[in-house]
Amino acid sequence: MFAALICLVLPGTSRSWALTLDDVVAKIESNYKNIAAFKGSFKQKATLKTLNKVQEGLGTLLYKKPNKFKWQYTKPTEQEITSDGKTLWIYLPENKQVYIYELADNQGIGNEGQIPGNILSNLGDLGKDFNVKWGTPLERDAQGNYIIELVPKNPVANIHDILLVIPRDITTNPSSAFPVIASTVRDAYGNTTNIEFTNIEILETLDGTVKAKKKARGLPDSIFTYTPPADVEIIKPPLTRSK
């Protein structure tokens, strides 16, 4: 479940493009660094090759820097994943359980498989934890969007590589445009977790291009703090570190 937050690879076409890999990476990083807060929806598809099973989900997401997020699933079952950057809460209403993780400041991507949405915090500096190259086996999709592949520089639990689908017009989009359409996490066993980001609305940018003028448009920090219901079981397992 925790590796479940990274997204959909689309069919590919021509290898011909005008931008270099460095151009695309630089634009992803600059766009993302300028975004302070956003909201949107997501579609998820997890293919469990080892179990010959496909799981699909839908939900909404909120994100605010640094490292504050809330993922709310509506399908296949309701669940809520919230983090204030220091603590992670995973609420499973159907099971009446809340998992609580305390996050280390220096965790890097070592717990990527257990921290939903953690890849979003790496978009501003892709080269720090990943070797970046064009996507394998496809470098562009049917719409001409770019596909890049991120390979962890150090072993990471549940991650062999990550594919990101990048808008083909990323260099002409304003700096407030969200730089990722979709992503896919692949593990060493051939299992994949795909997420397609939809209806992304940028709520605030650092350069002031978009300002949270109305309180309703902003994301107060209180949104990213979770208080478990009184009737649930509290579970506090340790985060699994990469070897």
Keywords, separated by commas or semicolons:
outer membrane lipoprotein receptor (LolB), chain A; mainly beta; 243 residues
Alpha-beta content class: mainly beta
Helix content: under 10%
User: What spatial form do the alpha-carbon principal axes imply?
Assistant: globular
Q: What's the order of the H and E elements?
A: HEEEEEEHEEEEEE
Any overview of this molecule?
Helices cover 7% and strands 37% of the residues. It has two helices and twelve strands. The protein has helices at residues 21-34, 126-129; strands at residues 35-48, 53-64, 68-75, 79-83, 87-92, 97-102, 130-134, 146-152, 161-166, 182-186, 192-205, 233-235. A hairpin with an 8-residue loop joins strand 8 (146-152) and strand 9 (161-166). The protein is globular.
Please give a quick description of this structure:
The chain contains 2 helices and 12 strands, in the order H-E-E-E-E-E-E-H-E-E-E-E-E-E.
Topology:
Elements: H1 21-34, E1 35-48, E2 53-64, E3 68-75, E4 79-83, E5 87-92, E6 97-102, H2 126-129, E7 130-134, E8 146-152, E9 161-166, E10 182-186, E11 192-205, E12 233-235
